[in-house]
Design goal:
This protein is an all-alpha fold. Helix content is 83%, strand content 0%. It has a single domain, classed as Chorismate Mutase Domain, subunit A. The protein binds prephenic acid. Residues 1-88 form the Chorismate mutase domain.
């Protein structure tokens, strides 16, 4: 195997670990959507998002990666808000 093939195989392995965790995160989000609908709370919560970003900064072992992690989390939270909206729409259908 070439180095590139090995690196891609490692990426595949890491994705295999990430996907179930992301699936679980999205599943928890559908539960949050239900709780928020009951409590008449908006899906978007800027204060909570600030806490999530702060947590990333604290957790990151490589501080130079924080801007990239922040970009990834912005996309994750965008998708999370979408699934929460879809969940609330399904509940109203
Ligand atoms: O914690 C929440 O209230 C969520 O809905 C989850 C989440 C997230 O993905 O972390 C998504 C949307 C909110 O704006 C804040 C955070």
């Amino acid at each position: 195997m070439t180095p590139l093939e090995q690196q891609r195989q490692r990426i595949n392995q890491l994705d295999e670990q990430l996907i179930p965790l992301l699936e679980e995160r999205l599943t928890v989000a559908t539960e949050i959507a239900t709780a928020k609908a009951r409590q008449h709370q908006p899906i978007y919560d800027s204060r909570r998002e600030a806490v999530v970003y702060e947590h990333i900064q604290k957790q990151a072992e490589q501080q130079q990666l924080v801007p990239y992690l922040t970009e990834i989390y912005a996309a994750i939270m965008q998708a999370t808000k979408k699934i929460e909206e879809d969940e609330q729409e399904d509940q109203h259908a």
